[in-house]
Amino acid sequence: MQAMSSSLTIFSFIILIMSVVIHEVSHGYAAYLQGDLTAYYQGRLTLNPLKHIDIVGSIIVPIVTTLAGFPFGWAKPVPFNPYNLRNQRWGELLVAIAGPGSNILIALVFGLIIRFGNAHLPAPFIVLSMLVVLVNLGLALFNLIPVPPLDGSKVLFSFLPLKFQQYRFQLERYSFFLVLILVLIPQFSAFLGLIVSFFFTLITGFPLGAIGF
User: Fold this and answer.
1) How many distinct helices (H) and strands (E) make up the chain?
2) First-residue to last-residue Cα distance in the chain
3) Catalytic residue at 24?
């Protein structure tokens, strides 16, 4: 039992790292397809984790949160220049949703595999697939929160009149503290956990506790 728990912890960490890398590369490709080559020139349109690792977000935080039972982390943001985007009105919105969108897509693919193939697939694969769904749902939903510097804030301000941009820039100055406050509020973590659990069950057909989460 202890060996299985250790294995799940290790795989959770690996899945988390790859998921945040895919998240950031998706931002880069969304910008690239709209004419901004910033990420391309900086060598960030690659799934090589070494190009994206952030010491705090990709090493320290994932280790701590994985051991705590809810893996979470982030990679270095992939840079892009919004002024290079062909669609100046909605271009930044498309770049913003590409990250969480990639995580939602991954969660859906593996979730549907679990739902329709669980009777024919080996148990270890089902367990790992559940981890993939859990991690990617958590990343997507957290990043969609409309608080800078999270992707949800860029989505929100894309729909607001230009006069609200000044508030965005002011909030972004304190973005680290805003996210830290969110993470440290127990009620927020519990609420986010409930939402993740709901969508996990909706997609996979299993309760989140099916594998001990």
Assistant:
1) 9, 0
2) 15
3) yes
| Cα-based distances in Å from 126 to 85, 113, 133, 195 | 40, 8, 10, 21
Confidence band, pLDDT 50/70/90 cuts, at residue 211: low
Question: What does the domain layout of the chain look like in residue ranges?
Answer: 2-211
Q: What is the pLDDT of residues 148-179, one digit of tens each?
A: 889 999 999 889 887 777 777 778 787 777 87
195 CA to centre of own chain: 15
Tokens of 166: 């000044």
Q: Cα-Cα-Cα-Cα dihedral of 28, 31, 35, 40, to 10°?
A: -10
Mean pLDDT lowest among 15-19, 26-30, 62-66, 74-78: 62-66
pTM, entire model: 0.90
Q: 204 near 133, Cβ under 8 Å?
A: yes
Categorise residue 166: left if φ over 0, alpha if ψ from -120 to 50, beta otherwise: alpha
- Does a cis peptide bond (omega within 30 degrees of 0) precede residue 149? yes
- CB half-sphere exposure, 128, CA atoms < 13 A: 11
Residue 72 is predicted with a pLDDT of: 77
d(CA 79, CA 57): 16
Catalytic residue (choose from 8, 21, 24, 101): 24
Amino acid residing at 42: Q
CB 59 within 8 A of CB 20: no
